[in-house]
Structures are given as C-alpha cells and as structure tokens.
Amino acid sequence: MIYPAEFGVIKGFVSDAENGEKMSYADVVFKNTTIGTSTDEKGYYYVSHILEGEYTIVFSYIGYESVEKKIEIKGGQVLTLNIELKQSTIELPELVVSADRECFEKSVEVSHITFTQREIKSVPGFFEADLIKSIQLMPGVVGMHDLSNKLYVRGGSPDENLVLLDGIIVYNPATHLFGLFSTFQPDAVKEVELYAGGFSAKYGDRLSAVLDVTTKEGNLKKYEGNASIGLITSKILVEGPIPKGSFLFSGRRTYFDALVWGYAHIFDKNVELPYYFYDGVGKINYNFSNDNKFTLTGFGGADVISFTEGLSTSEEKISMSWGNSGISGRWRRVFNPQIYGDFIGVTSNFFTHFLYENFTDTTQNIKLAEDLTNLSMKGDFTYLLHKNHTLEFGLQGENLKVKQNWEVAEGLFGPPIQYSNLISVYLQNKWQLIEPLLFIQPGLRTVYYDQGGRFIYNPRLGLKYRFGENSALNLAIGKYNQFLSTINSQESYFSIFDFWRPVDSIHLPPVSYHIICGMEKWFGKKTNFTIETYYKKYYNLLIPKEEDMFFSTPTESLGSGNGYATGIDFFFKKDFKDIRGWLSYSFAWTRRTADNESYFPRYDKRHNLNITIGSVVPTVIPVIKGGRINLRWYFGSGLPYSDMVARYQYYFFWDAWDTPHIWKWEWRYVSGPRDAYRLPVSHRLDLHFEKGIKLFGLSGEWWLDVMNIYARKNIVFYIYELDEQSNQSDTPRKVGYSILPIPVPSFGITLKF
Predict the structure, then answer these.
(1) Torsion of CA 714, 718, 723, 726, to 10 degrees
(2) In Å, how far are 196, 338, 516 from 441, measured between CA atoms?
(3) Which residue, of 271, 311, 373, 620, has the fewest CB within 10 Å?
(4) Residue, of 109 and 532, whose pLDDT is higher
(5) Taking a C-beta distance cutoff of 8 angstroms, is the pair 217, 189 a contact?
(6) Rounded to whole angstroms, what are the CA distances from 65 to 88, 469, 709?
(7) How many Å apart are CA 230 and CA 255, to the nearest integer?
(8) Cα separations (Å) of 534 from 104, 323, 587?
(9) How far apart are CA 564 and CA 511, in angstroms?
(10) At a CB cut-off of 8 Å and minimum separation 6, what does 265 contact?
C-alpha cells in the first residue's frame, strides 16, 4: 500500500510481558498530540496518516505499567512496533473490570459478558470449579436443577447454543457424569465470551446464544505449570516456550475407579466402580514472523462405562463411551497495516458407542454407534478502512456427517449416512457514526444450505448511543437460522448424550428473531450496571415427542412448532479494594406450541436471582487470614412439570405357564396438561475458599467448596409411591425428591512448578 510522501504509518501488537498473551483494548497515545487509538480484541493496533517527525508514544492499560517509546516517523514508512507491558501491583480482579470498561467505550456489544479464568475458579463448584456453573450465574441463563450443567439462555434449549473452543464446535459441553460436569478445564482457559442474544453476523447457525472459549496461548517466556488433586479428579497443566512460539497442555481424569480397584485388591474385596471420564487440550503456537502466526489446537474428552458385575453371568460385558473431540489449525496473517485475516480449518466430532458382548454366544452381541463429524474451513478478515470504520467479512464452508451403525446378531444395519453442506458469507461494518456518541454495526450473513437448495439471509444490526461519558443505550435486531437439531428431548433433568441430525429437505430450517434493548451505566472504572429487555420469536422449531428418546428416531418424525421468549435482565457488578461481587436477576417468560398444544417448557423459570460476593479474609482472623472467600446465593421460582390428575384400575388377562388363565389389575395414571404445574421455589447458599500455601518448596493454594450450606432440599421431581405397610389399593403419597439435600464439601490442592 502506498502512502503520501509526508505521512507514515505505525502498527503492531501489545502483549503481556509475563506470558506473551495479547492484550485487548490497550491504549496507544501519541504524547502531547490528539493522535491515538487502542488495540482491538486480538491486541492489534494501527495508526495512519502520521506527519513526518519525532514522537513519544505511550502504551498503557489499567493494572499495567505504562511504556513510553520515542519513535521517528518518515514519509511513506510503515513502522512495526510490538510492545510488552508489565503488570503493576494492582490485583487481577481489577484488571477484569478495566477490560470490560474499555470494551464499553470502543465497541458495540449487546448481551455480551466476558469471563476470565480467575472469575471461573472463584465460583463455588461441585467438587471443582466449572466453567458452565460460572456462566449460569449470569442474567438470562438458568439451570434445570442444583447440579445441572446445561445452558438454557433466554428461553432457548441447549441445542440452540453455538459452543466453540478455539474454533472447534463442542456439541455437548455438559457431557461428563450425566451432565453434572462440563468438558472445559478452567486452568487452560484464557477468556470466555457469552453472547446471550443479538450476536453479530460473524456468528451463525444457532438460534439463541454463542459461548466462545479461548484457551491460553502458552507462556512465551518461561516453562511453568501446575498440578491439582481433588476429591474425584486430578489435573495437570504445563506450558512454555518453543523456538519461535509456545506450547500448552492440560489434562484431567477422574480416579474413583482406580481407588476402588486398589482397595479391592488390597483388602480382597469384590467391588468395582466401572466409570471414569477424562479430557485434555493441547496447543502449539508458531510465529513465522511478526505478521504470520500459526496455531494448532487439539481437544478431546470422553466418559467410559465398562462392567460385568451385576449381570446374570460374568461371561457378559457392557461397555459405553461418549464424548467430544476436535482439531483446529489457525493461520493469522497481517497482509498490510490495514488488513489482517484469520484462516482456520476445523474438524469436530461427537460420538456415542454402546457394546454388549456375550462371550459364550456371540450371536447375541449388540453394537450400537453414532458418530457426528463436522469439517469446516473459514476465513475471517478485518479491514481497518478508517478510524471510524472497521469492516469485517468472511467465508465459511461446512460439511456435516452423521453415521449410525447397529450391529445385532452379527448383522450390520442402520440408516444411510446423512450428509449436509452449507456455505456462509458475512459482512459487517463497525461504524463510529458520531464519535464518541453513536456507534452502529450493520451486518448481513448469507447462507446456502444444500438440503432443499435453500438460500437464507440473516440481517443483523447493533447500535450504541452514549448519552453520557459513562452511560449508553444499546439496541440489537437480528434474524437467526439453525440447520441441525437434536432428536432427543432437551427438557430432560439428566442427559448422557445428545443425538444430532441435520435439518432435512422436508422441514423448514428453524428460525428466530431477536429484539434487544438495554441501558449500560458505569460508575467509574470498577462498577457497572446493565438492564436489558428482549423478545425472541421462534418459527419452524423441530420438537421431538416426549416419548422419542432414542437415536433410532428418524428426522422425518420430528414435529414442527413455534414459540417465543421474553424478559428483562439486570446485572450489577462492583469492585472495592478487597471486596468484589455481582448481582444478576432475570424475569423471563417462555412458551412453545407443538402439535396444537401450547405449553411452558420445563426450563421456563419466571424469576432467577444470583448474588455473588468475594472478599479477602482480614488479618485479624487466624489460620485463614489472607485467603479469599466467595459466597454465592441463588433463588429461583419453580420449574414447570407434568402431574397426575387421576388414576384408575386397569384389568387384563394374564396367561403364563406358571399361572394360567387369571385376571390381574394394576393402577394406571392420567396425566394433566403438559408442564402445567410448578415445582416449589428453590434457593441455595454455596461457599468457596482458597488460600496460598508452600509445600515441598513449591507455591500453590488449597481450596474448599461447600455446596448447599444450609441443607435446602430443592425439589426436582415428584413420584407417587406407597408406604411399605400399604396395600395396593391404598392411595399413594406424592413424594418430592431433591438432588442435593445435604451440604456437600469438597477440597483440593494446586501446586505450581
């Protein structure tokens, strides 16, 4: 690119000096001038049309020491200057707030929340910190019960969320331990972004929300790591430099099965625990030059059950496994100071396997398997057209394959492999229409879907009006389509795995329309308040019947329905020197219509309140002084459920070899309208405490979590049952069951090396 002779250009990246991680929204200011900019979300900055001369340029970020550099600009020159900033003595929690503040000032972000590793690990967890559990504290997000790890965002079911890990699509992020643990490891996470609605044209192919997880790049400066031991899992993370780059590896595995195995062999006991899960992520970064960087990420995890005990004979075996895996390769290229691009190739897989083996009669063997594989290529470009115009555009191609094998009595059968292909093109403009008052972000995503040869257009619009230095009005409007769906119910209290299918040519692709309006207010740099109201309208939803729970269900049998979701979300976040916390509250209303029946889905929660507060323990308290304590209190209205309204005696003729020709009877129940009743309100108090330690010459921390401190019994479902002394003709009692009826403590140790 050619510039006028009297002007020059400067560009580069701003990074953390300690680990080399890129820094978003850092300030870049020419001292004693009006020239300045800030880095974008990738840490890149660009300043053009600089007159020849000598300047002092200041790089700054709250919580880091500023860096001043004297530079000389020459006409027609493109100067590359990469800068590293060192952390100051300000604590990490304040850095989180400063990043949010910079995002408020420089971008159009509606229904957007950013989480860091520190925030994830500070939230009380069930045996360990969990990313999904942290996201459930945000407004508009609900869980089905005390231990649920699925995301229901603003009236949407979990299959309506696009979940990404370094570009890898994660089809079931809550796969572990029947949906109680997510597959993400907080130690490896750099940043988590949740778009609860109104997301830009850059993202597509889902109806409700986007969860975009970015892993750490790996320390460019030194080798380091940590190892953790908890009650049910152990974890390890190592990272460090390689020539022209860095690497990171993180792994986790449960070990209850190994402990039980050891106990059985030591004490000669006939016991076993035939279940475990594992996951891991590895990452390599290689910098070919200042303008070229390649990143390779591999991710995988699975749950495994395998046992022989409890069957009629030890000559039989049952094995099950299910999980996610994927690989992404990303090439980032700065073509010239104004244009850079990301090119990424991804393969994602979700699998479910079941095997029954009879070692004495192989004709009885059963093997069921389903594999979903996604191959995609994507190119994203950023064009810094002008200081008030940033164009983003890209192209994505995606191939989806669903393969099912059913092998019974040594015969392999199953439906044909299902394929689908789509091509997406998007364009959007980040436009500072009236700087710094009015920002707009129009966008369009166009999709070609080969099932039915459909062209689909998804327009999007985001707007921010700053009516004060610390206040803004936000608006987002958009159309969203989805081209795959699950054939199992997303309203189940527990879920082992999901069965996905591409939308066929018979059905219209599901579509949703988002309208979001809100206000954001900042009180200084460390306190903010947001309020957003939203309305989502759904059409062409593919809804499985309640009795269809198996992956043999054909896509053609799915019913079509409509629905809507509306509500208002409040979020308040406050930081003091030693105390920080946030409050989120949602009032929501969700309704769906299918098969001429209108109902509230089981995840429709009218009121949802979360209060989280953390503090450093004062020095006057012995033993735990200097540690950090976090409390979370939750309150929610009851979820819908279906109840029995009547019962009757059903008589039938029984003819068996041992009792021929007799009449028998049993109670049969009549169910009321679908999900027309409400469970009682639920609430719970959880605690997380952590404190630094020195052990074996290594620094680290120990932590303690207590879930449900005051032993609240939150009812999840009801069962009608008889007392042991009752006769079959007696009226059964309605008994409520909770999942977490008592306080559940857990603890662990993390050591850094």
Answers:
(1) 160
(2) 17, 19, 14
(3) 620
(4) 532
(5) no
(6) 6, 25, 42
(7) 10
(8) 20, 34, 11
(9) 11
(10) none
Q: pLDDT for 603-636, tens place per residue?
A: 999 999 999 998 888 777 777 788 888 999 999 9
Q: What is the mean pLDDT of residues 427-453?
A: 92
- pTM of the predicted model, to two decimals? 0.88
Residue type (1 letter), 18: E
Q: Are 283 and 166 in contact (CB under 8 A)?
A: yes
For residues 322-359, b (16+ Cβ closer than 10 Å) or e, as one string?
A: bbbbbbbbbbbbbeebbbbbbbbebbbbbbbbbbbeee
pLDDT at position 448: 97
What is the distance between the alpha carbons of residues 586 and 154, in angstroms, rounded to a whole number?
Answer: 9
DSSP 8-state assignment for residue 159: G
Q: Partners of 593 in the beta sheet?
A: 562, 598
In the block, which residue shows the tokens 């390769």? 329
Q: Is 609 exposed, middle or buried (0-12, 13-18, 19+ CB in 10 A)?
A: middle
The angle subtended at Cα 528 by Cα 522 and Cα 532, nearest 5°, is 100
Q: Using one digit for the tens of pLDDT, what is the confidence trace for 97-148? A: 445 666 666 677 788 888 777 777 778 877 788 888 888 889 999 988 888 8
576's CB contacts (< 8 A; 6+ apart) are 526
Confidence (pLDDT) at 2 = 45
Long-range contacts of 220-227 (CB under 8 A, 24+ apart): 220/19, 220/20, 220/245, 220/246, 220/285, 221/17, 221/18, 221/19, 221/20, 224/752, 224/753, 225/752, 225/753, 226/187, 226/700, 226/750, 226/751, 226/752, 226/753, 227/750, 227/751, 227/753
Between β-strands 7-16 and 83-85, what pairing exists: parallel, antiparallel or unpaired?
Answer: parallel
Tokens of 326: 């994927």
Residue 251 to residue 241: CA distance in whole angstroms: 19
Q: What CA–CA distance (Å, rounded) separates 167 from 379?
A: 12
Q: Is the peptide bond before 436 cis (omega within 30 degrees of 0)?
A: yes
DSSP secondary-structure letter at 290?
Answer: T
Is there a contact between 602 and 639 (Cβ–Cβ < 8 Å)?
Answer: yes
Strands 36-38 and 44-51, by their bridges, are: unpaired
- Reading the block at residue 90, the tokens are 């300000």
> For the residues of 52-107, what is the DSSP string, one character each?
SEEEEEEEE-TTB--EEEEEEE-TT-EEE--EEE-B-SS-HHHHHHHHHHHHHHH-
Phi and psi based region of residue 223 (left: phi greater than 0; alpha: psi -120 to 50; beta: remaining): beta
Distance CA 572, CA 313 (A): 59
Spatial distance between the Cα atoms of 242 and 281, rounded to a whole number of angstroms: 18
Largest CA distance in the chain: 106
- pLDDT value for 576: 67
| Residue with tokens 């810094």, as numbered in its chain | 384
Q: List, edge to edge, every strand of the sheet that includes 67-73.
A: 36-38, 27-30, 53-60, 67-73
Q: By C-alpha distance, which of 163, 110, 178, 156 is closest to 132?
A: 163
**Torsional class of 434: left (φ above 0), alpha (ψ -120 to 50), beta (otherwise):** beta
**Which DSSP string do the residues of 666-720 spell out, in sequence order?**
EEEEEE-STT-EEPPPEEEEEEEEEEEEEETTEEEEEEEEEESTT----EEEEEE
SS3 268: coil
**Cβ(331)–Cβ(294) under 8 Å?**
yes
Structural domains in the chain, CATH included, are 7-85 (2.60.40.1120)
Burial (CB < 10 A; 0-12, 13-18, 19+), residue 7, is: middle
Q: Which of 584, 583, 577, 697 is nearest to 628 (CA)?
A: 577
Task: Specify the DSSP class assigned to residue 499.
Answer: -
Where helices occur in 442-538 by DSSP H, the ranges are: none
